[in-house]
Each structure stands twice: as structure tokens, then as C-alpha cells.
Amino acid sequence: MKDNLQILTEAVRGDRKKVFARYGQKPSKAPAERIIRWVLRILGGMTVGITAIIIYILVSDAIGFFRQVNFFDFLLGTQWEPFGFEKKFGVLPLLSGTLMIALGASAVAIPFGLGTAIYLTQYSPPWFREFATPVVEILGGIPTVVYGYFALVTVTPVLGYFFPEIEVFNALSASIVVGISILPMVSSLSSDSLRVVPVSIKNAGYALGMSRFHVVTKIIVPAAVSGIVASFILAFARAVGETMAVTLAAGATPTTAWDYLHGIQTMTAFIVQISLGDASAGSIEYFTRYAIGLTLFVLTFGFNFLATRIVRRFREVYQ
Q1: Are both 61 and 96 inside the same structural domain?
Q2: Helix H segments across the chain?
Q3: Digit-coded pLDDT (tens) for 186-204
Q4: DSSP structural state of residue 153
Q5: What is the pTM of this model?
Q6: Are 277 and 178 in contact (CB under 8 A)?
Q7: Can you list the pairs that 304-307 forms with residues at least 24 positions away whose Cβ atoms lie under 8 Å?
Q8: If we measure between CA atoms, which residue out of 304, 238, 295 comes closest to residue 270?
Q9: Are residues 92 and 186 in the same domain?
């Protein structure tokens, strides 16, 4: 009782560091606290375990593919014909198509997403912000198969007026709709980063006679650059993993030619194609899905690692 009274007294006096230090010295022995700790440990262990199982399955089944195909032929080959009479397993056409879609989608999502975030957090009136924010976020909740159908029946015909040589299945329309689908991610994450910039820093800029435009571009955006850059990379990684929209809109033509007016095939689109049941279990065509899946996993992991490094590099700490 005396200890509890002392803790309460310290809290009332504002000695929060002493209170936190007292509780942080050793974990509580209360049954409820023990249960919570064990539940959290189990949940954390399950997350790590599921990730490890996924990696194990990808690696173990991809080994079956690389036993029959040379690794460097797979990595550096420029032809992808797994169903042809003379089978060729060069992943560069699929990798090229994937990067085309990701870069094209980023070119759409990054400027519009960042511009939306800056306007909603710094310029728009509250009533418009309350209306526009949910509308923008709805774009991220639309099924990607709807985006693919929209690209096929609407975006491509419109693009045909400007580019008569465009094919029915093309990378340009797929990039546009994927960019629209990842725009809310850029906007939401960038808005969160812009909102946490301390008001005192903005007021300091106004006190120096800076205009709102200069405060936003010279102070607020640079202060939030770590979160903004992270949103760009995460959106790019999201575009890399997009499946149904590019499957419907971009076609199934593996190629290394960077022509947005023609059809391509991405790694995820090929996984969909090979999963339709055309390949018999245990065949080399069957194992291609795991080789492509492992490549996609390594690519996504690399982007996430890059995002982490960039965030640490540009992070600003405000006291």
C-alpha cells in the first residue's frame, strides 16, 4: 500500500521518469499480464513461422526447377517459352514487363498522390478534407479485377484516339490503372508524414516572413521526406506484386522490348497463367511458378530493405 501511494505521489508530482523506471525494472507478475505476454509471444512467433514456411516452400520447390535449368540461363536469358517445343526459361522478359508496369504506375501515382497529400494537409478547408479523404481511400478498396476490366473496355479505347497503333492488350493502360489503384497508398502515407511535422517548425518559417508555398516546399516536405520516400517505395513494391489488373489489361506476351503500346507479361501474370492447370504436377513447367515466385519474393524483399535504409538515412528526430 505504501509503495502504491509513493508511486501515485510521484505521478502527481510529475516524476514520470521514476514511475516508468520503476515499472520497467521487472515485468509484472500479475496473471493477466503473464497471459498477455504469452499471447503476444505466440502471435509474434506465428508471424515469423508463417514467413519461414513460405520461404522454405519457395526455396525447396524452386530447387526442383534449378536442377533442370541453369541458374544463369534463367537469370540472364532473354526468351521465356516454357510451353514451346524447344523450352526456354530466361526470366528477363517477365522481369522487364514487371518493371515496366511498376515504373509506369509509379509515374502516375507519385505526383498525383503526393500532390493530393500536400493539398489535403496544407491547403484544403476542413470540410473538403473530410469529404475528399474517404473518396481517395475508396480507390484503394476497389478490386483490382475491376481495374483490369476498366482498362480493357475504357482506358485502351480512349488511348486509341491518341495512339492508333496501340494493341488491345498493352502496358500503358495497365500502368495507368495500377497507378490509380496505388495512388491512395502514396496519398495516405505521405499525409501521415506531413501531419506529424511539428507546428513549431512551420510557425518558425512564417515568423521569418516565408509564404505558405515556401513553408510547404522548403520546410514541411523536407521534414517529412523519410515517410514520403517510404510511401513511394512501398507503392512501387505494391505495383510489382499487382496481379489481376495486369493479367487482364497487359496480356501474356513476354518480351524485353520497352514499348508501352504493346502487350507484355509480368511475373505475377505468368503465375496466374501457369496455375490454371495446364502444367502437370512435378513437371518443369509446374516448378516454374516457384522459381518465379522466389524471384518475386527476392525482388520485393530488396525494395523493402531499400525503403528501410532510405528511411533511416533521411529520418529527422524532433525533440
Answers
A1: no
A2: 2-13, 16-24, 31-66, 71-76, 92-118, 126-138, 144-150, 156-162, 171-195, 199-207, 212-215, 221-223, 225-240, 244-249, 267-274, 284-314
A3: 999 899 888 888 888 888 8
A4: I
A5: 0.82
A6: no
A7: 304/233, 304/234, 304/237, 306/233, 307/229, 307/230, 307/233, 307/234, 307/237
A8: 295
A9: yes
CA distance readout (Å), 90 to 75, 82, 287, 288? 6, 9, 14, 11
Residue 96 has pLDDT above 60, yes or no: yes
Of 6, 36, 67, which marks where a domain is finished? 67
Please give the tally of structural domains in the chain: 2
Domain annotation covers residue 289: yes
| Domain extent at residue 51 | 25-67
Q: Please compute, for residue 33, the number of CA atoms within 13 A of its CA located in the half-sphere on the CB side.
A: 6
260 and 189: one domain? yes
Query: 254 and 284 in one domain?
Result: yes
Query: Same structural domain for residues 92 and 62?
Result: no
140 DSSP assignment: G
Report yes or no: 219 and 241 within 8 Å, Cβ to Cβ: no
Rounded Cα distance between 190 and 188, Å, is 6
- 157 shares its domain with 206: yes
**Which residues does 188 contact at the CB level (< 8 Å), separation at least 6?**
117, 136, 137, 140, 231
- pLDDT tens, position by position, 220-245: 888 888 888 888 988 998 899 888 88
Burial of 48: CB neighbours in 10 Å, binned 0-12, 13-18, 19+: exposed
- First-to-final CA distance of the chain: 36
Radius of gyration, alpha carbons of the chain:
26
Residue at 268: amino acid letter: T
DSSP assignment of 225-294: HHHHHHHHHHHHHHHHT--HHHHHHT-S-------TTS----HHHHHHHHTTTTSPTTSHHHHHHHHHHH
Distance, in Å, from the CA atom of 172 to the CA atom of 178, rounded to the nearest integer, reads 10
